[in-house]
Amino acid sequence: MKAKEIKELINFIANSGLDEVNIETDEIKLHVKKQSEAVLKTVEQVTPVVQQPVAVPQQNTPPPKKEVKEEAPKEDSSNYVTIKSPMIGTFYRSSSPESDPFVNVGDNVAAGNVVCIIEAMKLFNEIESEVSGKIVKVLVENASPVEYDQPLFLVDPS
After folding, report:
1. What does 41-81 look like in DSSP terms, one character per residue?
2. Contact, 144 vs 92, CB < 8 A?
3. Is 50 within the bounds of a domain?
4. CA-based R_g, the chain, Å
5. Which helix (H) or strand (E) holds 82?
6. Mean confidence (pLDDT) of the chain
7. Are residues 25 and 86 in the same domain?
8. Which of 25, 56, 94, 128 could form a disulfide with 99 if both were Cys (CB 3.0 to 4.6 A apart)?
């Protein structure tokens, strides 16, 4: 592979929206990884902040009462099983834009059932469920890029 071809490939990958790509051929091994903004932001936030004590004049007023907000009970997702992406690519819920999704929230799925398609390098790969249960949540928007090992669905195996 020539330097110009490598440069064009890197530019293509940079414009594709993917954060990391591994390509291996007989001639070359190529690993491209973008530095994410989240990492940069966390590095900026690590700097320590020193606060000086401030003298507050004493008042005879009672301290303000804290408002107690009732939070809605959160769903207990500890017993859910996650179906994860086995590859990087583009996530599709159905086989074509006109077709119904393979699974919807509330559908029962058996191990081996197709739950979505991931397109990688113009190949459409059917992703099968490894667990039987009920689809609780779809975690990825249709036609959006996904990373390796990214959660796609939450399944309640009970």
Report:
1. HHHHHTS------------SSPPPPPPPPPPPPPP--TT-E
2. no
3. no
4. 24
5. strand 81-84
6. 78
7. no
8. 94
From the list 151, 155, 158, the residue with the least C-alpha distance to 106 is 155
- How many domains would you assign to the chain? 2
- Encode pLDDT of 17-52 as tens digits: 677 777 777 766 766 666 554 444 444 444 455 555
Rounded to whole angstroms, the Cα distance separating 144 from 83 reads 16
* Percent of the residues in the chain that have a pLDDT greater than 70, as a whole number: 59
Instruction: Classify residue 35 by its DSSP letter.
Output: P
Q: Are residues 41 and 87 in the same domain?
A: no
Host H or E run for residue 124: strand 123-128
* Exposure letters 23-33 (e unless 16+ CB within 10 A, then b): eeeeeeeeeee
Name the pTM for this structure: 0.52
Identify the DSSP state of 88: S
Q: Which single residue is written with the structure tokens 């700097």?
A: 47
86 plus 40 within the same structural domain: no
